[in-house]
Fold:
Amino acid sequence: MAPASYDDPGVQQLLLGLHDEQRSMYGFADDPADTPASQFAPPHGLFLLVQDEEGQALGCGGWRLLGAQTAEIKRMYVRPDARTQSVGREILLRLEADAKLNSARSMQLETGVANNAALALYRTQGYVPIASYRPGRNPDVNRALRKAL
Structure:
């Protein structure tokens, strides 16, 4: 696992997979290109890429600041064939630790109601449901979660 640019080819490959998976689950998805790469630039963010021994992209995720002490997890995704290897959990823990080192006191995120694996991961790591913090989100589809760091 290593820091990577949001526009790294391996990251982009994974983000296309995330976009396709979300479209198949919900019929729509946020476009990853709508998030500027600069939002993940240290010290106000970080984007991580996990690769296997052959350099194949397995998973990714990032954090960015939402406020002075609130960070947001964005674009967490693990390739389906790598989901039994705790890649998502490792990314999440590293993102939380880095955000905390950079003055974040809480972490929040959004995921979809049908993404049972993500919801289970976040709940086991101490995230609790909160009201949506993004205007225009559909409460029948989106789930917002928060954790104190």
Notes: The chain has a mean pLDDT of 94.
